[in-house]
Structure prediction request, 245 residues.
Amino acid sequence: MASPQSPRTEQPGTEPAARPRRNHLVWPAAAVALGALLIHNSLDTPVQGLGSPTHVRPTTVFSSAPDVPGSAPDVPGVETTSPPPTDDDSLPRSVPTRLSIPSIGVNAPFTKLNIGASGQLQAPPPNNTNLVGWFEGGVSPGERGASIVVGHLDTKIGRAVFADLDTLQHGSLVKITRADGVIARFKVDSVQTFSKAAFPDDKVYADTPTPELRLITCGGIYNRTARDYEDNVVVFAHLDSAGPA
Prediction:
């Protein structure tokens, strides 16, 4: 298990060009070996270890066609067969390819996030403002458990994909298209804001008995001294239905 580190150990980043009250997010990771690592990415700085969620269910990484580094193809993997659905209405594993949130105008491709040689989660490229990342070491959207999807709030070049994530409401629809041709439709249960200094790892990353989704970005006040936002916005959602694209 990775050792926890203080959330105040990150090095200063660069203030974003737009929306000066927001920055990059705390990047979540699912279980690795016996534990999991929560990491943070500030603009122009390395990621830093921040926490140790201990109850996230690890899963076998889906085997897909290799991606070009830094790219986010519409179809990152091709599945030739699909195992039958499980008894609890969860879906089999499948790579997510596109995220749609109609109420806030999100329509973005996915890039896969992995743990790098440093033991920390690699962040999506900051030069693409319409891109979301999925940690492929965790469950895929629609599988039993909590699938983790993260996105930039803003970057040095302007607003990014999750700029309006905090405006979602209870019952808002989140659609994720998967490589197996299935669209997993999630309904928002709640939108909560947590201080990065006291981020509730267990609440956000704990394993769940049914398919759930976590969408995560930054929020709160932009601290110009630390060059970082003080909070994280987390959307909690559950699988409502699934069907062919």
In short: Helices lie at 201-205. The mean pLDDT is 73. The longest helix spans residues 201-205.
